[in-house]
Backbone:
């Protein structure tokens, strides 16, 4: 069981760290909100996404690529539009930008909705299909996802210290637009 847990952790972490968009999403959120709500929202989103990956097993890999790409494109483009239209008011004291529940919900939604059928989910689904140990694989996958979240949040906190809020907002919009366009390009394939 420990070997399967470590195998899952390694496979999902490597799959998620190589070119994953959630790193940028979490880093951007960390530049705007407190650490607690971000990690709470991320943990809930990762938990549900990996639970679905484990429960559905190979079915996630059978989703049409164009549907997944279109959903990702729409979500990222909508996030870019929302970030661009919502101009920041006076700089808030410290990080009192949003209440704990609101920041947690924003973090959850930003992670839960955009990316489905990604390499981490498919890795977890294939491991369940191969080894049939959903709880162990879910725990390993969750540990990998939370490790990734901690790395991304650390990057975002660094941004918050050295980069002005308006610049972070523009960077966030550009990243969301780029992710949306990349996802839209995948619709055809």
Residues:
């Amino acid at each position: 069981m420990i070997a399967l847990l470590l195998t899952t952790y390694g496979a999902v972490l490597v799959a998620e760290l190589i070119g994953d968009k959630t790193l940028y999403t979490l880093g951007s959120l960390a530049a705007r909100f407190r650490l607690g709500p971000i990690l709470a929202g991320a943990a809930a989103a990762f938990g549900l996404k990996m639970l679905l990956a484990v429960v559905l097993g190979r079915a996630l890999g059978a989703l049409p690529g164009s549907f997944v790409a279109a959903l990702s494109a729409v979500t990222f483009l909508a996030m870019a539009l929302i970030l661009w239209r919502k101009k920041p008011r006076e700089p808030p004291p410290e990080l009192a930008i949003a209440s704990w529940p609101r920041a947690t919900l924003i973090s959850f939604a930003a992670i839960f909705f955009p990316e489905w059928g990604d390499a981490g989910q498919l890795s977890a689904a294939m491991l369940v299909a191969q080894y049939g140990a959903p709880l162990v694989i879910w725990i390993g996958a969750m540990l990998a996802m939370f490790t990734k979240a901690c790395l991304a949040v650390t990057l975002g906190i660094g941004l918050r210290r050295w980069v002005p809020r308006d610049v972070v907002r523009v960077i966030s919009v550009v990243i969301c637009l780029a992710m949306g366009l990349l996802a839209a390009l995948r619709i055809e394939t």
In short: The chain is about 75% helix and 0% strand. The CA atoms of residues 66 and 188 lie 6 Å apart.
